[in-house]
Design a protein that fits this description.
298 residues, alpha/beta, TIM Barrel, 4-stranded parallel beta sheet, 11 helices, DUF72
Length: 298
């Protein structure tokens, strides 16, 4: 994942910013005694991206991946509109409890830029509905140059998004975060529609750490910088998630990327180990192929 990549990550202040003032109020409304629903995964299951992760002789990458993680950020659907048969194949390769988080196809978000997209959106949602109970939360990622001047276009698409399908949204243009009035209106739109406001933690775009939750879930896309700071950054996330959980957070969707996908499973294993300890969870800690359990990164 090259978005937000910097030449010298050691010079970046990776401190997580304070929560947006509205986050505590949002979480308070969902505070209860329900179990913490946590999903942690990578962005891809491709052997070429996750080098060294698969044991020798692995015949099907998704089947093995799904024994090590409980979810996948499904980027394959961004590059090609999924069909029913493909979705069913993916679903049947994974165990009960596994979740797919498919990215909406680029035809909708990047090429058509949300213009006249109701038909392809319905096609997309009809296809991913085949995941049934294994469907997590699909997400819409907008182009870097999709700016607030097109807010009404985004509002129209979100308000008419197919019912019964959850959605998270990621805006990238700097103006969405720099203009407080725009940021407020956008967040309130998502909150009113019950959609998640994706948080991106990447070195070169610290503004995307808006820390504004719009519902009972936190959808976080974490991008390691292939640097020793990657571990301490994950530890800082544990601290923040503990705060959110105490305040009322019900669900966590946390996806681990790297600028160069070398050690994403290692980073995820560290994060999962800490999550299990801090929250009394029993998530599987991924192994690293023939090298046995993952122990450390640096």
């Amino acid at each position: 994942m090259q978005f937000g990549k910097v030449a010298n990550p050691g010079a970046v202040d990776f401190t997580l910013p304070k929560d947006a003032p509205e986050t505590a109020k949002v979480l308070e409304a969902y505070k209860n005694d329900m179990p913490f629903d946590v999903y942690v995964g990578c962005a891809k299951w491709n052997r070429n991206d996750l080098k060294g992760f698969y044991p020798r002789g692995t015949k099907d990458e998704l089947t093995y991946y799904s024994t090590q993680f409980n979810c996948i950020e499904l980027n394959a659907t961004f590059y090609k509109m999924p069909d029913f048969k493909q979705v069913e194949t993916w679903k049947n390769k994974t165990p009960a409890g596994f979740r797919f988080f498919p990215k909406i196809t680029d035809i909708i978000s990047h090429y058509k830029r949300l213009i006249d997209v109701q038909q392809p959106l319905e096609e997309f949602c009809n296809a991913i509905s085949v995941f049934e109970e294994k469907l997590g939360m699909p997400f819409l990622q907008l182009h870097d140059n999709f700016a607030p001047k097109d807010f009404d276009r985004l509002r129209n698409v979100l308000e008419n998004f197919p019912k019964g399908i959850p959605l998270a949204v990621e805006v990238r243009n700097e103006a969405w975060f720099a203009d407080k009035a725009v940021s407020k209106a956008y967040s309130e739109l998502l909150e009113g529609l019950g959609m998640a406001n994706i948080i991106v933690d990447t070195a070169g775009r610290r503004d995307m750490l808006h820390m504004r939750l719009t519902g009972p879930e936190a959808f976080v896309r974490y991008v390691g910088a292939n640097h020793a700071s990657d571990i301490t950054r994950l530890d800082d996330w544990i601290t923040r998630i503990k705060k959110w959980r105490k305040a009322g957070l019900q669900k966590l969707y946390f996806f681990v990327h790297q600028n160069v996908e070398l050690e994403s499973p290692l980073l995820a294993a560290h994060f999962i180990t800490r999550m299990n300890k801090e929250f009394g969870l029993n998530l599987t800690i991924p192994n690293k192929g023939d090298k046995g359990p993952q122990q450390s990164l640096f």
